[in-house]
Amino acid sequence: IHEGRAVGALGLHTQNAEVYLFMARAVVMAAAGCSFKSFFIGHHNLTGEAHYMAFAAGAWLRNLDQAISNTTAREIDIHGLSHMVGSGGRFLNRQGEEFMLRYEPEVGSRARLTKLVIGMAKEVEAGRGPIYMDLTGVSQDDQAMLRRIVPESFRAFDRIGVNSIVQKIAWIPAFLGTMADGGGIHIGTQCESTIPGLYAAGDASCCPEHGTWAITGLNLTFCFVSGARAGNYAAHFAEKVSELKASRLSEQVAADVQELLAPVKRPEGMSSDEFVYRIIENLIPYKVAYLRTEATLKDALTRLQALRQEHLHRVYARDPHELVKANECRGMIWVAEMILQSVLFRRESRGFVYREDFPLTDNANWLKWVMLCKAEGGVRVWAQD
After folding, report:
1. Residues in contact with 41: Cβ distance below 8 Å, sequence separation at least 6, in sequence order
2. Is the pTM of this model over 0.70?
3. CB-based contacts of 113: which residues, under 8 Å, 6+ apart?
4. Per-residue model confidence as pLDDT tens digits over 202-250
5. 110 with 120: CB under 8 angstroms?
6. Which residue among 78, 124, 223, 297 has its CA within the 20 to 30 Å range from the CA of 175?
7. Nearest to 344 by CA among 31, 123, 64
């Protein structure tokens, strides 16, 4: 950022740790969301770099209180939940009850993800866990259909010796963070951020609410549309501004490069794997991710802030691969804090936010976006109509 507008980006070579400077008259952020290396298929490399870079530059972010979850098998990370319950699969508790009928009597196991993960957490809290997926009632034709539609999931079951059709499968919620509708960089209709010259598309941005929380068709369409609009309007912006010479950014670039390479210059400290584990153990327990109260949120936030302040500067790397992982820690810890700050700010239950201390939806006071941006030493949060 130079004189209030985006003028380029730094890149890190993942194999030799060389740093590259890309000068540009406009920048499109399209580096996906942050799922904290979650236990869900395909999401282990989505670590929040786009969100962090925009946040650090001063851009606004939106809707991070709606950090989403899916559900998955406990032993292996798979997908295909909608197909499974749509074909007759049921969620059962330890007592063999289709427990979602207790919370969503009209649809039961076909409830939305916003309800499923809360129902699962409540069953475990009540001592009726663990949770299982039961596919024993699925017809033979639908069994064959499932294997055709989500073959990788059933191959995974086969490889660990689980006959998913005749035995119950241990099942858990899977925290996905800012994926899909989980929030992101605040954009307008031209996919522009609040920083001139900085645009965002796809999961890096905040996908508008569409009522389904689908992770397939609608969100894929949003990626196509936002990518095209972000590219077009970024090009129009670039035509109107002059090119900036790299020499004018020498001091800023030198400082950014020093920060980028700092972990590999440390002889010892905390490994990136341990740092990520400590993020997850504070962010994803069910009293923080699902059945929340002000007390549990504040406690987790305090722990994460202490982790950032006391240990982020200690994360070290021994090679370029670990250097990449070390820099991922910076994005994840800040996004985790943004999520908790946003959920703590919303004093009601809505969508993926369930507050035990505010269990009802309050349209009179909270039919609003939760916004945030960087502040001195932390995060500033506010509501916007």
Report:
1. 72, 77, 78, 79, 152, 153
2. yes
3. 68, 69, 70, 71, 213, 352
4. 999 988 665 445 555 677 888 899 999 999 999 999 999 988 888 888 8
5. no
6. 223
7. 64
